[in-house]
Amino acid sequence: MHQTFDAALEINMLHANQAGADYNRSHFDRWGITCLNLMSSPGAGKTQLLEQTLAALREELNIAVIEGDMTTELDADRLRQHGVPVFAINTGRACHLDAKMVAGGLHRLEQDCNPSEFDLVFVENVGNLVCPAEFEVGEHAKVALLSLTEGEDKPLKYPIMFREADCLLITKTDLAPYLDVSIENIIANVRQLNSQVKIIPLSAKTGEGLADWLDWVRAVVKARSQVTPVP
């Protein structure tokens, strides 16, 4: 059975992107950097989470951010206020960052800084529950955010995102009393797809779950630091 042209094109695109992702990861590994790819739909709270994370960890870890948005540097400017290097990438009409775009961010990191001095790079992907999960960028772990306001069914309707995630943050939990949504049902739906994912309910407003998230980040960075760098 022959593949359709569209199917063959998609396979070729993913194959080419994977080669670029492997290239990016080899640079992260050589520099001793852990890379985390943050993905979610628009408005789930990626930027606010990063603001809190940078405020909490910037004294103990050297952190940079590659910030993806279709247009503007509004989110990048918010993160720059925390005193870390932030490299903005505008994707135009593209609904996700790909490996080539992130390679551009790495080139700017190498030009402006000494990459080997960094412990952690966050990639804040474009708001989208579909494409970012399919296009690796060289990350060592994928972090998905799902806000409580999005409902219980999103993991089942957008399975790739939740199947691929290493950590899932269920955000805006402070709104639970006002919504007909069950955190337990969300977790159960996610577990159908991914039994190993770390799940952390979290509220940026109250601080619930933030310590658990920071501990998870620290643990990933520590584990990566014990891996022998690639020459």
TrEMBL record:
Keywords: GTP-binding, Hydrolase, Metal-binding, Nickel, Nucleotide-binding, Zinc. It comes from the Bacteria. GO terms for biological process: protein maturation. Gene3D superfamilies: P-loop containing nucleotide triphosphate hydrolases. Pfam families: cobW (PF02492). The keyword GTP-binding applies. Transmembrane segments: none annotated. Signal peptide: none annotated. Residues 38-200 form the CobW/HypB/UreG nucleotide-binding domain. GO terms for molecular function: GTP binding; GTPase activity; nickel cation binding; zinc ion binding. InterPro entries: CobW/HypB/UreG_nucleotide-bd, Hyd_mat_HypB, P-loop_NTPase. Belongs to the SIMIBI class G3E GTPase family. HypB/HupM subfamily. This is Hydrogenase nickel incorporation protein HypB.
